[in-house]
UniProtKB/TrEMBL annotation:
Alphabetical UniProt keywords: Cytoplasm, Pyridoxine biosynthesis, Transferase
Binding of 1-deoxy-D-xylulose 5-phosphate, residues: R46, H51, T106
Upper classification of the organism: Bacteria, Pseudomonadati, Pseudomonadota, Alphaproteobacteria, Hyphomicrobiales
Organism (species): Mesorhizobium denitrificans
Protein name: Pyridoxine 5'-phosphate synthase
Binding site for 3-amino-2-oxopropyl phosphate: N8, R19, D199, G221, H222
Catalytic reactions on record: 3-amino-2-oxopropyl phosphate + 1-deoxy-D-xylulose 5-phosphate = pyridoxine 5'-phosphate + phosphate + 2 H2O + H(+)
Broad class of enzyme this protein falls into: transferase
Pathway entry: Cofactor biosynthesis; pyridoxine 5'-phosphate biosynthesis; pyridoxine 5'-phosphate from D-erythrose 4-phosphate: step 5/5
EC id: 2.6.99.2
């Protein structure tokens, strides 16, 4: 089965936050994405709420529960106590822990599992006890995957930012794909399922899918929102599903 597509709504929220007005509606754009066949919605709330606001989360939870019960809600973020309580309040299907500092403009690296595994293990345990699938944001470092599995996580999410940054350089992109493939294979050998995300596009997804055909999920926001401005959200979701390998216009949930 091709990778499932989770649409990250942070960029829609960023646009909404330019004015003290409720549009574009984050929840409604999420509804359009799910109606077009996306498998889930992702948000990455940050402490300053510059992207999704904490108040968006119950609305997205209700949207999925009421209208798209087979879809998944993925909440990403740095595991402060405040974040963990936000997650527990909004009951996502998946939590992705990301080592981003509040001052960082965006996520730009994964966890160092050998150094931070002992810190992560009790957090992973707490989240799994509440019934959430846990995924840990990860650099494409094959050597670190055994230590990642030792945290008790279900999945890792491969950070694909450096791959996305090679859009104009196919030789560098090939080297990044080598790293991503090796890390994904090592994670899988360690018993982990593998997600991927950051700066994925219709153009760069097919080569990634070819190298890592067992990817479970991709979460995509920036490139997908840029395309939605050009093609509209439903057509954009269909284009990304096709790039993931889903035949025809719609995915099967
Ligand atoms: C973990 C990850 O790569 C995404 O959540 C990303 O951080 C979203 O980025 P923005 O919030 O900067 O759109
Ligand atoms: N987990 C990655 C994600 O949700 C989206 O990142 P981007 O496509 O906005 O770079």
């Amino acid at each position: 089965m091709p990778a499932k597509l989770s649409v990250n709504l942070n960029a829609v929220a960023l646009l909404r936050n330019r004015r003290d007005l409720p549009w574009p509606s984050v929840t409604h754009l999420g509804r359009i994405a799910l109606a077009a066949g996306a498998h889930g919605l992702t948000v990455h709330p940050r402490p300053d709420e510059r992207h999704t606001r904490n108040s968006d989360l119950p609305e997205i939870r209700a949207l999925i529960d009421d209208e798209f019960p087979q879809a998944e809600f993925n909440i990403e973020g740095y595991p402060t106590e405040e974040f963990l309580q936000l997650v527990e309040k909004n009951q996502p299907e998946q939590v992705t822990l990301v080592p981003d500092d509040p001052a960082q403009p965006t996520s730009d690296h994964g966890w160092d599992f050998r150094k931070q595994g002992a810190y992560l293990a009790p957090i992973v345990k707490r989240l799994k006890k509440s019934g959430f699938r846990v995924s840990l944001f990860s650099d494409p470092d094959a050597e670190g995957m055994r230590a990642a599995a030792d945290t008790g996580t279900d999945r890792i999410e491969l950070y694909t930012g450096p791959y996305g940054g090679c859009h104009d350089d196919s030789e560098r992109a090939r080297k990044q794909l080598d790293l991503l493939q090796k890390a994904a294979e090592a994670a899988s050998a360690a018993g982990l399922d593998v997600n991927a995300g950051h700066d994925l596009t219709v153009a760069n997804l097919p080569a990634l899918m070819k190298r890592v055909p067992f990817l479970a999920e991709v979460s995509i926001g920036h490139g997908l929102t840029a395309d939605a401005l050009e093609f509209g959200m439903p057509e954009t979701v269909r284009r990304f599903l096709k790039a993931c390998g889903w035949a025809g216009a719609r995915s099967q949930m």
